[in-house]
Amino acid sequence: MANKEKVKKNKKETKHSSLIIKWVSIVSLTITVSFIIFSVIIYSTVSQQTLIQQEQTSNRVVQTLQTQLQSISEELQISNVVPALSPSTRRILNGGPNISGSADSRESNNAFNDALVSSISNPDISVGVYNLHREVVFANGSTTPKLESFSGDIKYKKVNTKGNGSSLITYSRIRSTKNNKLIGYVVVANKMTNYNRLMHNLLRWMLLISVFSILLFTLISYFVVKDVVNPIKNISAVAKKVNEDPNSNVRIENLNRDDELQELSTSLNLMLDRMQRYIDQQKEFVSDVSHELRTPVAVIEGHLGMLKRWGKDDPEILDESIDASLQEADRMKHLIQEMLDLTRAEQIDVQYPNAVTNVNEVLRRVAGDMAMVHNDFNIQLDMDDLPADTKIQMYSSHLEQVLIILIDNGIKYSTDLKQINISAGVSEQIVSIMVQDFGEGISEEDKTKIFNRFYRVDKARTREKGGNGLGLSIAQKLVSSYHGEISVDSVQGQGSQFKISFPVLSKAKAEELEKLDNERKKKDLPSGILS
After folding, report:
1. Label partner for 181 (CA 20 to 30 A): which of 188, 230, 279, 365?
2. Which parts of the sequence belong to the HAMP domain (predicted)?
3. d(CA 17, CA 399)
């Protein structure tokens, strides 16, 4: 049953639509709609402008005919219409050439006659002149446009003929200029061959260009979207692997791109590295605790077992066992606290991102406190090269903790000369603090290991002095967490000098960080846990 549920769950998780299909579909739809709207606008604009030109052509023919026929005072008839037309027009109607061979004839034609000849000789133009009884009295071709009822003096009508495209019919009333009476009608049919050819070609080319452009841009969008989605798929695959195995070291490969996806992958890798460090810290903590607590627990268990068997009746053994158990319990308490400090020291950037400390003030306070606690030691403080306003980005209690660890370490390993020298100075925007003792010193071999967890130069003597081998590890973690450096210079039999250094904050940067820290405190955000 469990396997079936797992299979169903996996199938459910894999049922999802592709992001590439979604994005490409949206882009294609957007491009298609845009091209359709653009094409409709262009087609309508060209059609409207060209149609206006055709209306003007038809209107010129109508006006020319009206000009020729308006001089007639009676109803239009064949007998009075034909004489009113020019000789050239009659010649065309009779099948003759457009231009007569006689120079005198050409000179006798006026401007109206020339315009009429030009108009009715257009193969697209069909003219019909009707009398008041709707009888044809003049036509310029085999097909005469029909007269329909219309209102007003002139009317334009666009007719769509299947297979032949569109044509324009113009209806106009003719009134005599002599008595202003209605004497007939003129109907002009314009086949608009050029218009139909232009619109047909325009529609065809727009369709071809639109289809080609849509396919081209869809293809381009596919590769663009794929280029964006593939890194997301890689990121998702890495996230799944890490989710399945939190201890996995798999990381997102370098995307080799300078954009938000590269920034995202880098941030996720940093986040995974931090998570891995936390997991490793937890493992180390559990391992260290189980290892280091084994001895004190065994000692306490041994003393309790001895007391249970026969020691409770012997006051001397009873006191000795109780003292030993209390000593081991106290060592366990300090050990656990130090291990917690060590683990938390690796999370400084979360707990104290904006902390600012005045180095001068902390040094004076720590030196004074340590001199009071260890009054048998001569603790000297030299800050001649340290400006009073020197500030670093560090929580003050953590700087105190580092100094106390180094001073306490020097006191533990001091021999005959009970003296600790503390000095500080600033050089090239770096503040350096030195803690020097005159004790046993550290060998070259041990200098590379003293910052390791639980490492003791002399395990027997350190155990006697109550050390667990974690102090210098805590100091090193704290210093490195605040982007500082710690080092040691030592000669066996002459003593050791520990040096810590941090970048000095400018006045403007210090004020900015202090402002952010104050705002954080006002919001009651979690403060440090190492103080």
Report:
1. 188
2. 226-280
3. 55
Give percent of the chain above pLDDT 90: 18
- Residue ranges making up the domain that contains 472: 352-522
pLDDT, one tens digit per residue, over 17-76 is 577 788 888 888 888 888 889 888 998 999 899 888 888 888 888 888 888 888 888 888
d(CA 57, CA 62): 9
Q: Which long-range contacts link 179-182 to residues 24+ away (Cβ below 8 Å)?
A: 179/73, 181/73, 182/132
Whether 396 contacts 514, CB under 8 Å: no
Query: pLDDT at position 298, please?
Result: 78
The CATH code of the domain that includes 406 is 3.30.565.10
Instruction: Return the H-helix or E-strand segment holding 338.
Output: helix 315-344
pLDDT at 340 > cutoff 80: no
Three-class secondary structure assignment of 15-40:
CCCCHHHHHHHHHHHHHHHHHHHHHH
* The residue to which tokens 């180390």 are assigned: 284
Helices 315-344, 260-292: inter-axial angle, 10-degree rounding: 170
pTM score > 0.90 for this model? Answer: no
Instruction: Quote the number of domains for the chain.
Output: 2
From the number of C-beta atoms within 10 Å of its C-beta (0-12, 13-18, 19+), residue 20 rates as middle
